[in-house]
């Protein structure tokens, strides 16, 4: 994180696990402390689902 211009101040780390060949999933918490599902697909990019 030291190499980032903001030193990670505005970054959020979301641990993700492989769900299929080209998909990763993780769980995070939003600003209201609600659980949200984070999904990354190679062709679609990152999405957040409440």
- Gross geometry: globular
| Main sheet properties | 4 strands, antiparallel
> Radius of gyration over alpha carbons?
13 Å
The helicity comes to under 10%
Q: Output the structural class.
A: mainly beta
Taken as a percent bin, the fraction of beta residues is over 45%
Uncertain segments are: none
Number of helices: 0
| Cα-to-Cα separation, first versus last residue | 28 Å
Order of helices and strands: EEEE
Q: What do the pLDDT scores average to?
A: 92
Please tell me about this protein's structure.
With 50 residues, this protein is an all-beta fold. Helix content is 0%, strand content 48%. The chain has strands at residues 16-20, 23-29, 35-41, 45-49. Strands 1-2-3-4 form a 4-stranded antiparallel β-sheet, with no helix packed on it. The protein is globular. The N and C termini lie far apart (28 Å). The mean pLDDT is 92.
Layout of secondary structure:
Elements lengths: L15 E5 L2 E7 L5 E7 L3 E5 L1
Antiparallel strand pairs: 1-2, 2-3, 3-4
Question: How is this structure best summarized?
Answer:
The protein has 50 residues and is mainly β. It is built from no helices and 4 strands. It has a 4-stranded antiparallel beta sheet with strand order 1-2-3-4, with no helix packed on it.
Name the features.
single chain; 50 residues; mainly beta; four-stranded antiparallel sheet; 48% strand
């Amino acid at each position: 994180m030291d190499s980032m211009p903001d030193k990670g101040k505005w970054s959020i780390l979301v641990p993700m696990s492989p769900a299929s060949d080209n998909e990763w999933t993780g769980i995070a918490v939003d600003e209201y402390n609600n659980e949200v599902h984070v999904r990354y697909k190679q062709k679609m990019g990152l999405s957040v689902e409440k």
